[in-house]
Every structure is written in structure tokens, then in C-alpha cells.
Design a protein that fits this description.
Blueprint (H helix, E strand, L loop, with lengths): L8 H6 L4 H20 L2 H14 L1 H9 L5 H20 L2 H4 L3 H24 L9 H30 L8 H28 L4 H12 L10
Helix pairs in contact: 2-3, 2-5, 3-5, 5-7, 7-8, 7-9, 7-10, 8-9, 9-10
């Protein structure tokens, strides 16, 4: 058994993270500070909630006994901050037409890569015996399914809390799903490339690093 389950608050602080993760945390800390100074308690609350959400990958590591690449943790952090805090609180969706496209595409790429890793776990990491096209198809389907669930979440937030996450309604939803599909294709393509060529290239290298950092998950590879 590995020691990846021995995470603590001290481990999160002491661990080296991506620059993007630190920038996002600094942004939230700054927003909370401004909120305290101006008496904007809603800002303080939202900054605290979003910061707590960025810690979810670390708790997932502890729960699942895994070690996540810092690039993946940074991507999750950027997505959470970009979608919930900058997108909604900072109104980036209205200020920059491309913000929604970037958020959805990036998240779909990540979800497809996660789908690839999940499928690799099922075959105990033996990428040479795994059917590349089938695993890529499953990864693509996984990412698109999560994108659809996110659209349901947006709809629920709009209906229950009076937000405007769906913006133009059906058009926004369909546009997001189309972009999600494109991102899922890119992420699934990275998984396919990893299965065929190994960890060459940025995205396949992230998958390869996860496999190498979690040998206990793939310990039966050469059985």
C-alpha cells in the first residue's frame, strides 16, 4: 500500500504546486481581503466557498489513495475559479465572449483524460493490450456525459437561485455541448495517442505521469 492516503492540511501547504494554482489561490485571497475591507460579505463568502472547492482534488487523493499530477490539480483549480468566481462573480462570461468556450473546452479535455485513466485502471495499466479506439471512445463518452450533467447543474442553479448561468437558454446549452464534444475529442485523442505511442506530448505525458505516480493502482501490469 502506498502512502498517498496520508494527506493532511500540512501536506497541501508543503507540497509544490503549479504556478497557476498559486495564482488562483492568491486571487481568491485578494478578493476575500477586498471584501473584508469594503464590508462585502457576499464576496468573502464566495471566495471562501470557491477556495474550499479547489481543495477537492486533495481530498479525492486521500479518499482514493491516488497521487494526482500537479498539472491536473492546476487545471481543476483554474476551471473552478474561472467558472464560478471569475465567470459568475467577475462577469467574465459577459465581458469576454470566448470565456465560456475556453472553460468548456478545457474541462472537456480534462474529463476525457480522466476517462482514459479510469479505463486504464480497469485493464491494470496495460496500455499495450488495451484497445485504443474503444478506450478513446469510452473516454469521449465520459467527458460528454459530464458536460451534459454540468448543463443540468446550470439549469438547476438558474431555477433555484435565480442565477443566469445558461445565459441565452437553449442556444447557450447547445453551444456548450458542441464545445464540450470538441474538447472531449481532443482529450480522447490524447488518450489514444498515449495508448499508441506512450507519454510523448504534453497531454499524453500527463496521463503517463499519473500511471507512473500510482504504481499501486497498476501493480498487476506485468502479471
Amino acid at each position: 500500500m502506498s502512502d498517498t492516503s496520508d494527506h493532511s492540511a500540512g501536506d497541501i501547504i508543503d507540497r509544490k504546486h503549479s504556478l497557476f494554482t498559486y495564482v488562483c489561490w492568491a486571487l481568491l485571497a485578494g478578493a476575500a481581503g477586498v471584501g473584508l475591507w469594503t464590508g462585502n460579505w457576499n464576496m468573502v463568502f464566495l471566495a471562501g466557498v470557491v477556495f474550499a472547492l479547489t481543495l477537492l482534488p486533495f481530498f479525492f487523493e486521500s479518499w482514493a489513495d491516488l497521487r494526482l499530477p500537479k498539472s491536473f490539480i492546476a487545471a481543476v483549480t483554474v476551471f473552478i475559479v474561472g467558472t464560478i468566481f471569475l465567470g459568475e462573480v467577475g462577469d467574465f462570461y459577459e465581458r469576454f465572449w470566448w470565456w465560456d468556450v475556453v472553460m468548456h473546452t478545457g474541462s472537456a479535455i480534462g474529463f476525457a483524460m480522466i476517462g482514459t485513466v479510469i479505463m486504464l485502471i480497469f485493464v491494470r495499466g496495460d496500455r499495450l493490450s488495451a484497445p485504443p479506439f474503444l478506450l478513446a471512445l469510452m473516454a469521449f463518452s465520459f467527458a460528454v456525459a459530464l458536460g451534459a450533467l454540468w448543463e443540468i447543474f446550470e439549469f438547476a442553479m438558474d431555477q433555484w437561485f435565480g442565477l443566469n448561468m445558461q445565459k441565452s437558454g437553449l442556444v447557450d446549452t447547445m453551444s456548450d455541448l458542441i464545445v464540450d464534444s470538441i474538447g472531449a475529442m481532443i482529450g480522447a485523442g490524447a488518450g489514444y495517442w498515449y495508448l499508441k505511442r506512450g507519454g510523448t506530448g504534453f497531454l499524453p505525458l500527463t496521463i503517463d505521469k499519473f500511471v507512473r505516480d500510482n504504481p499501486h493502482v497498476f501493480e498487476d501490469t506485468k502479471a
